[in-house]
Amino acid sequence: MNVGIIGTGNMGKILIEAFIKSSAIKEQNLYIMNRTKEKAEQIQKEYPNIHVVDTAKDIVNHTQYIFICIKPLDIYPLLREIEPFLRQEQCIISITSPISVKQLESIVPCTVVRVIPSINNRVLYGNTLLTFGEKCPIHHQHFIEQLMSKISTPVTIEENITRIASDITSCGPAFFTFLLRRFIDAAVSETEISKEQATLLATKMIIGLGQLIEQEVYTLETLQEKVCVKGGITGEGIKVLEEEIGDLFHHVIQQTHAKFQQEKEKINEQFCL
């Protein structure tokens, strides 16, 4: 089964690398293109059996499943460009959250699916968020679920939780990396530890924390209880966190949702909604 990827920026490249690393798709079954062809050709240097093509029409002509990995406002013009060449048995897969499957279905004659990946998929981990179009047949659903299960744990979601689910799975790595870096910076600023030592210790700590949760040794609640001995040093640190974090994450979610709404309004203008 041939798979096409339009757009080889950050997420497009992550999907390509993950599909090949997991053996989900053979190199010779991947067709890729990018507006700047050199970017796609750089990927081909790593994976020489991948097909680099010149146009989106070439992707449509050679593949059955077509991942669209470009900026949200560029998707509508692209769909208009390729719509005359799409076949009913094909499947369009968008990776952007502001465009709904209903909007995609209003443009193209084929099946549509939305798959929201995460940077964690690069190491065959984390989640991918799936939303299927109303007309998506079972065989397409099964193929997408099986494909994404090779690089992640796929989770099917409804439209109304798209943004918050994306915040947790896709934005979460950036949010918590930011917090970890601030933790390291504070350690270096307040003590004599070097940045290299602090970074090593914090990195190993977060990996170990993930393993404790992954292996179900502790839940999030019981883990904190095990570390935070009553009257101990950790408890004093928790007090500061409780006092100073406040509504921080409420504000983060409010901000991402506000930006999401702005993008949706621009997209709705394109789709005349």
Structural account:
The protein is of the alpha/beta class and 273 residues long. The protein has helices at residues 10-21, 37-46, 56-62, 72-82, 101-105, 138-149, 162-190, 195-214, 220-227, 233-245, 248-270, and strands at residues 3-6, 30-33, 51-52, 65-68, 91-94, 111-116, 127-132, 153-156. The protein folds into two domains: 3-157, 3-Layer(aba) Sandwich (Rossmann fold), CATH 3.40.50.720; 165-252, ProC C-terminal domain-like fold (Orthogonal Bundle), CATH 1.10.3730. It has an eight-stranded mixed β-sheet, sandwiched between helices. Catalyzes the reduction of 1-pyrroline-5-carboxylate (PCA) to L-proline. One of its GO terms (cellular component) is cytoplasm. One of its GO terms (molecular function) is pyrroline-5-carboxylate reductase activity. This is Pyrroline-5-carboxylate reductase.
CATH superfamily of the largest domain: NAD(P)-binding Rossmann-like Domain
The largest β sheet comes out as: 8 strands, mixed
How many separate domains make up the residues? 2
Strand content: 5-15%
Total DSSP E strands:
8
The overall pLDDT, averaged over residues, is 96
Family: Belongs to the pyrroline-5-carboxylate reductase family.
Catalytic activity: L-proline + NAD(+) = (S)-1-pyrroline-5-carboxylate + NADH + 2 H(+); L-proline + NADP(+) = (S)-1-pyrroline-5-carboxylate + NADPH + 2 H(+)
Pathway: Amino-acid biosynthesis; L-proline biosynthesis; L-proline from L-glutamate 5-semialdehyde: step 1/1
GO molecular function: pyrroline-5-carboxylate reductase activity
